[in-house]
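Slide 14.
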Amino acid sequence: MKKAVAIGLGVISAAWLGACGDGGWGNQNVPPPPAPAPTPVTDAQGFYSGMDSGNDSVTSVVLDSGTYYFIWANSITGSFGVVQGTATAAGGQFNSTNAKNYLLGTSTVVNSTISAVYTAKSNLAGTITPASGTVGYTSFSGTYSTVYEQTPNLANIAGTYQGAAGSLNAVDASASVTLSASGALVGSGSSGCRFSGTAKPHANGNVYDLTVTFGGTPCVDAGQSVTGVLLVNNGKLIATGTLADRSDAFLLVGTAQ
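Slide 15: predicted structure.
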């Protein structure tokens, strides 16, 4: 995960209308509609914490759907970023062909693939390979955290968090967000960009589905919204998401005040 400048799965329901006329078909029995396809559930889901070959700390979030967010940060340089995509994960093999490595503050996103192995509720390790060139190439490993198995509770994590935030084209070295017990959040960065949104418990795991909408100027993605995830552990918050077309990503990391 290359150093950067310092700083939804929708459930589609269909309405079925069936009718039998009085003509040539007679009063036939209308077959029932097919059952909706189940939401994919992977045993790779969870939180993993570890390091990559660039000496960045890495927090990996793998959802039950296979969508993942790998958040990396370097405590020495102050740089951070996120790798996002969807993976097929089964039988100990974790693979993704649509990874995007967002190098925050550099105006660069690197299309990548991920090849990894995992043991359910134990570890995840692999390699991120750029589609071309060498920028963003890294190996990583992480250990599973049982924090993922706790019951999410917005009231327990409500409060104000102070840290840093960034997107591809801008980094706020100082940013804050306040999260209410109802899941409403408001925040701002040192650039003057303001944003608001909501967080609600995800269907599985101690993680929250996140939507953030940016205000006007000077926000880089003014008026646009990102969707992603929010998680809090031991007073540390991570909020991250991407625009619908995945052309940009947002990441905020903070500590409870």
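Speaker note: Residues 177 and 187 are 4 Å apart (CA to CA).
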